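3.2 Worked example (two chains)
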Amino acid sequence: MNEDLLVAEIDAILPQTQCRRCGFSGCLPYAKAIAEGHAEINQCPPGGEEGILALARLLGVSPVPLNTAHGVPKPEAVALIDEQLCIGCTLCSQACPVDAIVGAARQMHTVIAADCTGCELCIEPCPVDCISMIPPRHEAAGLGDKPPAWTGSHVAHGDEKKAADRARERYQFRLQRLEREKQDREKRLARKAGTMTTNVSSAAAANLKKVTIQAALERARAAQAKVSKKNNDASPLPDTSHP
């Protein structure tokens, strides 16, 4: 099987929590590592035993127990921000891999429950411990009575597969957004550096012009003084022999 296709098939099995418990920066990098033989199929706690079995079937290998060094499956949960304690530091929104947290600097932040994957990456950066994990309200999240995508059962249910696909899309959109912002920053810095270089070059050119003119004036004065001295030396002395 073509490697890109294999990576896509592996990624389609993974729960798309983007939680990094597997040791990689997201589900797709983990899928690539599995396809390249650099990672085992049992490093994804959110996928659980069912995820391991699905990966084993795809790859034609024997299933192995979950490597608990990467964690253990947890009950489904979504993040909740205590808005009374939130100081608007934006650290949680920066950590969220699917942009499921909204809020401006120094303003209250809120989790979009329907988009939260339960990755818990927002908890550690919070300086005031105002984020907790709670059971998802399926109705409020628009999921009906179905469990969200990050449970092991996502492999077998269409609704959960759609939710996982949405999480994957939001993850990719975030990466693209971050790349655009990085390029914009680099362009601004380049323009600023160019402006500074231009200003420095202009100042240097003006200073050089000033120095050149000053040197020319000094040479002219020196030449004029030399001519005056020569003329003075050549002038006859007045006759003082007669009273």
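3.2.1 Second chain
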Amino acid sequence: LILVEITIVNFAWRFDPFFHSITLQVIWAIGMSMVLLGFIIRLPFKVILLLGLIIVFGHNLLDIPESAEGFKAGFLWDLLHHANFNFYPIVPGVYLLIVYAFLPWTGVMILGYCTGVFFSQQFSAEQRKKIFVRIGWALIVFFFVLRWSNFYGDPVHWSSQKNGLFTFLSILNVNKYPPSLLYLSITIGPSFLLLAYFENVKTWFTEKMIVFGRTAFFYYILHLYVIHLATTICFLARGHSLSDGFNQPSSRINFVLPGEGFSLWIVWLIWLAVVIVLYPLCKRYDTYKRNHREKWWLSYL
């Protein structure tokens, strides 16, 4: 996964055959987390669970030194926790951009691994639903109580705004890079509720969503290329040249200029169109995977 991030995913984002900028994003963080999970997988279950809880609930303690005046994150600290879209030179003309720090996501992956026990034969579907509902609501309540205190869990405090709606949005405006405890609580909490209430729902819509779930990595790679290719076509259609597209600073995505683009509702329509266009490919790939289980490499895609 780390190799795929550096090569296939980076090229999809940049369309830069010379890789002047290498970005470490979500696939790198998942890959690094899987490497670390591989080292602890043989520990007792309770130890693994405790380790995941300590990371998820405790990693925001690292915000304390980060908030100190004059603090400067180094390369290793950025990889571990800070990230913050910092550039590091690798060789002349080539830079490394750290977007996803791996430590918080490693904690999430560990807890996700531990959650798998609820899908074993030890728990019935009804028991699993009750547990997930309790966990989901507990995390949501935990989020609002802790967020209201402005004490811990996110490096940016909420504040009163010009009206109630914007104050509520300020409360919800929590940090994803790296994912704070509060960010994880308000995203994973509702996710547990969705798992609880939709596990046995069989509709036309859920059948389509299951296909994307079974081919998530495949879809992720494809959608990057489709969107960036469409962006490149629009860029050239506006009268820009290939040279304009490639001669971008390393901090920018090739064939994208600040200030150009579409209104939000058109972006939504484009997103929906991409999902619809890629569904048949994902469906065919899902069928191929299920009909060729003997091919071990398919499990990685």
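3.3 Remarks
Residues 1-122 form one domain.
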